[in-house]
Amino acid sequence: MLRSMKDLEGCAIAASDGIVGKEKDFLFDDLAWVIRYFVVETGTWLSSRKVLISPIAVQNPNWDEKIFPVLISKDQVKNSPGIDTNKPVSRQHEMDYLNYYGYPYYWIGTNFWGSGIYPYSLYPGNDIFEHSVEGARSANLIHKSIKSQHDQKGDPNLRSCKAIIGYNIHAKDGDIGHVSGFLVEESTWAVRYLIVETSNWWGGHQALIPSAWIYEVQWLDNSISTDLVRKAIKDAPVYEPNKEITQDFEAAVFHHYELAAYWEKIAKTVNKQS
């Protein structure tokens, strides 16, 4: 099921022994378009410190009460590695964080979450992941390579969801609107669509652009580029925030853009793994 950022705003994070805090933002991977961490403000019990919580630990959310149960304790959160959430999160910081909780590295593999498409597949004890010694050695080589590349660029791929709101959308033939939100798939935490507000161009409707059609996020000039032309976005099925998004509507969006639907790819992946 798809959730908008408004659905996710202010959700409480419930550890095994109490509320950790409330969600204030998300960090997403601008290459894979997947939410990697919740940015959680802890409140007075931890001096309003902001901490990161991985979807790997998230259990079934209670959407009626906006509560996300997580398989960690408040003490674990309290003693977790300090990360300045106002600055870019480096790969080294991620490694420290994941090692602390005993989570495998999500970037080893070809799917959203390592060898799987769901974050819970990486939770310690899950049979889907096997942390072998040889695998760990290979992982360290990969990490060193990635860290070296990131150090050279000085620009990790984890980004704030809130920071990208308002970014201009550059189509192949000119500007078409700006980002007004995201639609996230709650099972994989993949950002499936950008919600584009075209009011300054086409009279006020919103449209969806599948993240698969985004080829570059330009952080210096606050813009996002897509391979689509303006007319394709203008003529796309109108997105109405107050209406439930059905698979028929999604299918119509993908058909309009002449793009294979993501659930077809998921089905193929699951069949290969089974």
Which key terms come to mind for this protein?
SH3 type barrels, globular, 274 residues, Photosynthetic Reaction Center, Chain H, domain 2, seven-stranded mixed β-sheet, alpha+beta, six-stranded mixed β-sheet
Question: What would you say this structure looks like, in words?
Answer:
- With 274 residues, the protein is an alpha+beta fold.
- It has 2 domains: 2-159, PRC-barrel domain (SH3 type barrels), CATH 2.30.30.240; 165-268, Alpha-Beta Complex (Photosynthetic Reaction Center, Chain H, domain 2), CATH 3.90.50.
- It contains 9 helices and 13 strands.
- It has helices spanning 5-8, 74-78, 91-101, 133-153, 161-164, 199-202, 230-234, 247-257, 262-273; strands at 2-4, 12-15, 18-29, 34-41, 50-53, 67-69, 158-160, 168-171, 174-185, 190-197, 206-210, 214-218, 223-226.
- The strands form 2 sheets. Strands 1, 8, 9, 10, 11, 12 and 13 form a 7-stranded mixed sheet that branches.
- β12 and β13 form a beta hairpin.
- The longest helix has 21 residues, at 133-153.
- It starts with a strand and ends with a helix.
- The model is unreliable at 128-155 (pLDDT under 50).
